[in-house]
Amino acid sequence: MCGSLRAHWGGPVLDKRAVSKSEADKIIAIEEDHWSDVKSLDIAPAKLSKSVSAFANTAGGEMFIGIDEVKAGPVKTRRWRGFADAEAANAHVQVFEGLMPLGGHYEATFLASEHHPGLVLHITVFKAKGIINATDGTPYIRRNAQNLPVVGEEALHRLRLDKGVVSFEDTPVAIPPEEITNSATALKFILSVVPSAEPEEWLKKQNVLMDGKPTAAGILLFSDEPQASLPKRSAIKLYQYKTRGDEASRDTLAFDPLTIEGCLYDQITEAVKRTKEVIEGMKRLGDTSLVDVTYPDETLHEIITNAVLHRDYSIPADVHVRVYESDSKC
Fold it and tell me: Between these two residues, 133 and 75, which has the higher pLDDT value?
């Protein structure tokens, strides 16, 4: 039978759901991993908050509070030992309300089984848009079955980037503004689009020049040589292999990888051109002989453009375009 309970402290109404014996057995045996965790009802609220923070800061997950894990030598066994009633879980529910006061970041349900004592509190934590700290003021992330603290400004900045709280492309880079205000790329673009605009003022309005410094996006778009300011993250590398994809290795390269540099617009144009040349220089097996390989220009352009536009520029790695041989007649 389903019903609802209200905790004494005046928190949200929590549903109570009856589960079958097979469901209860699955909950007791659930494997702890990146998305799942089981906790004893004796867990301290402060320690519970670390799991809440970790799930919310990573990919979300589920917790079942009221499952004991008993060790007898090398063997671990579990048992269902839930809360005596809803009020007994007040301190645990307050952790969620304290860390996520708007209530939209989690769902909570009490699970009851006629085969086991007490109520297990089932919590589903959703991935939060912002960063959620534990009660100790530290944010945590989930890695496999562990809650790891995010320590240091560099790690915290990485978490902000991963969650989209900040964008690497919006980050100012400590180089002279002339890198984009006086570049041939920027001047050519502005003259063709807004010929009456002054480069510096126009770039400020586009938010690619902030506090007198070019942003990473400004460098990628308007610098003549963005690779000098953002090395290892702003070029395209083109590879051709003399084998199929599952057999490819450095030893099967047809030539040394080609590095394509310049502003993003020029990179895309040049990468499409060079990739087309590589593909058209290959042959495939036809019905009676080898025939030329062709690839639609629009498709090739879309593939490379998407790779350039949607990559994570905070990670120091270039875009890689790989071309393989095929034994197909298609």
Answer: 133
> Contact at 8 Å (CB) between 262 and 225?
yes
Kindly list the structural domains of the chain, giving each domain's residue range(s) and its CATH number in brackets, ordered by start.
3-163 (3.30.950.30), 169-229 (no CATH), 236-323 (no CATH)
Picking from 303, 309, 308, the residue whose alpha carbon sits closest to that of residue 276 is 303
Measured distance CA(266)–CA(270) in Å, rounded: 6
Helices (H), the chain: 21-28, 45-57, 90-99, 153-163, 178-181, 184-193, 199-205, 216-222, 226-229, 264-280, 297-309
| Distance of alpha carbon 21 from alpha carbon 110, whole angstroms | 15
pLDDT digits (tens, 9 = 90+) for 4-17: 333 333 445 578 99
Separation of CA 167 from chain center: 13
Nearest to 200, CA basis, from 189, 212, 215, 184: 212
Angle formed at CA 70 by CA 65 and CA 73, multiple of 5 degrees: 155
